[in-house]
Design goal:
The structure holds two protein chains of two kinds.
Chain A lengths: L1 H38 L19 H12 L1 H32 L5 H11 L5 H13 L6 H5 L6 H12 L3 H9 L4 H9 L4 H17 L2 H6 L8 H8 L7 H21 L1 H9 L6
Helix pairs in contact in A: 1-13, 2-3, 2-13, 3-7, 3-10, 4-7, 7-10, 8-9, 10-14, 12-13
Chain B lengths: L6 H27 L2 E4 L2 E4 L3 H6 L3 H32 L7 H9 L6 H11 L5 H7 L12 H28 L4 H9 L4 H12 L1 H16 L3 H6 L11 H10 L4 H26 L3
Antiparallel strand pairs in B: 1-2
The chains are: A mainly alpha, B mainly alpha.
């Protein structure tokens, strides 16, 4: 008797558990579905009763309208160019720094590292005005330089890479030195090749960061042909006659590549977003 | 030492140079600017004028109040939800764990601007969410045009975006809790709920502290969501410190005043992080 009631209890809690998780799964992913549906329908279909939940045939019209409003290829190019150049340069700068901070002993090492770490606590808003004035002063507003340069030294990336270098055996570096390899060569051909997973995770993190960056590009760029994608999207909702169809296409384009990328690389992705938060 | 003394500095040079130009200098310049005022086209020293003006600025108080409401309401709800979801997903017997994990995490990879705009469309008076609620007989809610519901909307949107992210952090940390702890508790007759309270939460304390600090810092800087969802409205009900700084700095071009406000955030971040470390630290 007792056994069966225990079994039903287990079953009930299991059903409850799956129900709970499914509700949350639905809440998490349904907005994406609705966004894709919206991008294929006319604006008027976004607010019908009952709601439109099936794909329509207006995608190309919406896309054309969107292109007419913000020059979609231009702003996508800006975002992609800025993000990719940023990832490559920032990865170089931060990996170099992290290597020095983990594999060499020298004066000021801890001070430098602590300064980098503490600077992560400083809110964005506290640096943005002097940065803006600096860019104005040197006539660099509306340039790729202004969009890319300010965050190249990205303390969190240094932190992430340092954690990974710490796990690399010093003896391998020592023996390469004995073999007469130069310091840069050791770094490049002995140490870096074994850092591929860490480099992948860090670059995904940096890419996401820059691709989604909003406040700084909003300030640093004011001519529409230099807009990054988020800034261009945001400019669409300020106007009086909002065409939701084209906005839906816009936010779908901002989302689909990332989702595909995420689904393909989700292990690295999650590692990159988590950083070493979990290792500590 | 078998390497040249200069070597580490060479590796560090690009980072330090960039850091000095684009982080250290602006931090200091901003502090100086916060004590200055624009007079006849140039910035002159104005003592604490900007700060004393802040304490008489009712809009600043509104922004401060709103920011703290978001902080106090949204962060605990999100972190608790993330813990519960992570705990539910942690069972090895659960089927489709991978699907749930990936699904819950998906909102965290979308662009902040894109999701804020998506929510602004769903929350229109005749939008999807009201249509859905109508199925349950709920009256039309004016999500974005009444002060209370506008705040609620921002909290809802942020919770949607960030819960999965925190859940994944907790989930990863839960993998490191020794299985024996649960087995021993099980033998002592502790139920799942007791185990969650007495084993999972204490074991995760450092990670919970980490997520609390990160969420606190990012909530204090909150900008993208209120800018794109409500633009601070209605009647400044969703105006945050981050948004007000942007307004003062880049609509009114009052850089000194905006810098003073930015430094208020720096001070609040420092104080709150210190308190969180003290409260949750190992004494």
């Amino acid at each position: 008797m007792k056994k069966t009631s225990q079994k039903t209890n287990k079953l009930v809690s299991k059903v409850f558990l799956y129900f709970f998780l499914l509700v949350f799964l639905f809440i998490s992913i349904f907005p994406f579905y609705w966004m894709f549906v919206g991008s294929t329908n006319h604006t008027s279909k976004m607010f019908t009763n009952p709601p439109t939940l099936t794909f329509g045939d207006q995608f190309m019209t919406n896309l054309t309208n969107l292109n007419d409003s913000i020059g979609i290829f231009r702003v996508l190019f800006n975002s992609l160019f800025v993000s990719l150049v940023f990832v490559v340069l920032s990865l170089l700068v931060c990996t170099f720094a992290a290597y020095a901070l983990s594999k060499f002993k020298f004066r000021g090492r801890n001070t430098i590292f602590m300064t980098f770490v503490l600077s992560m606590m400083i809110p964005y808003q506290a640096t943005i005005i002097p940065l803006f004035r600096m860019m104005t002063e040197f006539n660099l507003l509306n340039t790729y330089f202004a969009l890319i340069a300010p965050q190249l030294c990205f303390p969190f990336a240094i932190f992430l890479m340092r954690q990974n270098f710490l796990a690399f055996p010093d003896s391998l570096i020592e023996s390469s030195r004995i073999d007469g390899a130069g310091e840069f060569r050791i770094f490049w051909s002995v140490v870096l090749p074994s850092m591929k997973p860490a480099l992948a995770a860090t670059s995904i993190y940096l890419f996401m960061m820059q691709w989604n960056n909003f406040m700084w590009p909003l300030v640093a760029v004011n001519s529409p042909e230099m807009y990054t994608f988020p800034v261009a999207l945001s400019s669409l909702i300020g106007i009086s006659m909002i065409d939701y169809g084209q906005i839906m296409v816009g936010i779908s384009i901002a989302t689909i590549p990332i989702i595909i990328f995420f689904l393909l690389l989700q292990r690295h992705f999650i590692a990159g977003m988590l950083g070493s938060a979990v290792k500590g | 030492m078998s390497y040249k003394r200069l070597t580490p500095y060479l590796f560090l040079a690009p980072a330090i140079l960039l850091f000095l130009c684009f982080t250290a200098y602006p931090i200091v310049a901003s502090l100086i600017l916060s004590f200055q005022k624009l007079e006849g086209g140039t910035y002159v020293f104005a003592g604490l004028a900007n700060y004393s003006r802040l304490f008489q600025d009712s809009v600043f108080y509104e922004a401060l109040k709103n920011t703290f409401i978001f902080l106090i309401v949204q962060v605990p709800i999100m972190l608790f939800l993330a813990l519960v979801l992570a705990n539910a997903l942690n069972s090895r017997l659960l089927k489709l764990r991978g699907v749930f994990r990936v699904g819950f995490f998906m909102p965290a990879v979308t662009s902040l601007v894109a999701y804020a705009i998506l929510f602004s469309i769903m929350l229109q008076d005749t939008g999807l969410i009201n249509q859905f609620l109508a199925l349950f007989g709920v009256e039309n809610i004016k999500w974005l045009s009444t002060p209370f519901w506008a705040k609620f909307s921002i909290i809802m949107a942020m919770t949607w975006r960030w819960t999965g992210y925190n859940m994944v952090i907790y989930l990863a940390a839960m993998q490191n809790i020794p299985e024996e702890l649960y087995e021993a508790a099980s033998l002592d007759g502790a139920g799942k709920f007791r185990q969650f309270l007495n084993i999972t939460i204490p074991q995760l304390k450092p990670v919970i502290l980490f997520t609390a600090i990160i969420s606190t810092i990012s909530t204090l800087q909150l900008f993208d969501e209120p800018y794109n969802l409500t633009n601070g409205g209605p009647a400044d009900a969703t105006l945050t410190l981050g948004l007000y700084i942007y307004r003062v700095g880049f609509s009114y071009f009052d850089f000194g005043y905006a810098s003073a406000m930015a430094y208020i955030i720096v001070v609040i971040v420092a104080i709150l992080s210190y308190i969180q470390l003290k409260v949750a630290g190992d004494d």
